[in-house]
Structure formats: C-alpha cells, structure tokens
Amino acid sequence: MSTLDVLVIAAHPDDAEISAGGTILRLVDAGARVGILDITRGEMGTRGTKEDRDAEARRATEILGLTWRGNLDLPDGRVEVTVESRERLARHLRELQPELVLSHHLDDPHPDHEASARLAKEAWYLSGLKQLAKITGGPDAKRPRQLAHFQSHTHFEPTFVVDIEPVWERKREAILAYATQLAGADTKDDGKHFLYGVDILERVETKARAYGERIGGRFGEPILCREPVSFADPLLRWLAGPSR
What we know:
7 helices
C-alpha cells in the first residue's frame, strides 16, 4: 500500500469528485500523492450495480491521477461508527500515513455523510494512539497533522477557498465518469440526477462560481479546517494563491 500526502474519505463513490474534485486535482498537479477511501460502494443506489459503480470509480481515479483508491466496504445507507469501523479506518490511516485528511462536514444532513465524517474524526484521533496500534497490530501509531472538511450539503464559512479554475474541465469530466448516476447522454436531461431531477453539474458549477467570486476568480471549492493552517506547509502553501 502506497503512502500518501492527502487522503480524502468519502461516503460514496462520486462524493469526493463532486465536492472536492478540484482540490484533489490541484493537489495532484502540485505533486502531492493523493488517495480516496470510499466508505461504501454505493450499492443502495436505484441505478447502477456495485460492479458498475466500481468501474466508474476506476475511470474517475484515472482522470484525477490518484496514487491510491480503496473502499472500506461498509453497507451503503447503514454507515455506523462502531469500534470495528473506527479501528479499520485508523489502521488505514496508519498504513497510508497522510499528512492531511479531507472528509464530509460533521453536520451534513445525509446520514452516511455525517457518519463518515464522524468516523473520519474518531479514526483520525485513534490513529495516533500507540497502545491501540499495539493491540490491533499493523503499523506504528501516526496521526495526520490536519483534518479538514469539504462541502456537500451543509454550507459553512470556509477557512479558505481553493482556486479550481485551472482544473475545472477535468473535475467536470471526473463527475461525468459516474454515468449511472446521471441521465443518459442521449436525452435532454443529460447531467441531471436520475432520482432527484437535479442537474448535478449545474448545481456544482453554481456553487463553484459563487466561491470563485469570493476569491476574485471563476471557480472555487470551500475547505474548513479544524485547526489553524500554516501556509509554510509545502503541501498547503499553494492554496493561498496570489493576492487579488
């Protein structure tokens, strides 16, 4: 298993692409080793089999240029924070050794998103406990330096906004890799979520433009950090961007 600079923890395949795809691409383009750990396979979705979703995730992984992608294989629609799930995720963190972890916001109204955020938060803490590492086996204790959150359904005042204009088209392509979750390309509803009738790409673009405007750019992604960020950090200093 490769070690990473950044690990994105997302409830379902496509969550990371929709909410943090631009940030992921900017990090990869800056030379960071980035991975995604999907908590479920999205098997409870009305359209698309587990195998379909796996294939779509592989395609999106290629577009994003990820170093690693894995799945915790928790049941879709029933993600719970348990002793077992916390320890499994903590072991992944010790093995992958990321400096930065990105996940959903803790107040996200989607039950799986909220549970995945809590799971990430608790596993982040447990990954640094030396005695737990001895009990459960595996790599030595190592806690990521920073735990931060991307925005899905819950709006928050961000710590910073990532300028994603240079990678906007590739983010869009990564979202489109999840064809089963969108209407068919040969229909007038191309880009709309098949279940909710919402044009996902339009919604993502509207949000990205709103945050881009706040930083004097075209497209942006909001990130909320749990701790103060030092921009002397070589993994994060580029995020500050030029003053406008």
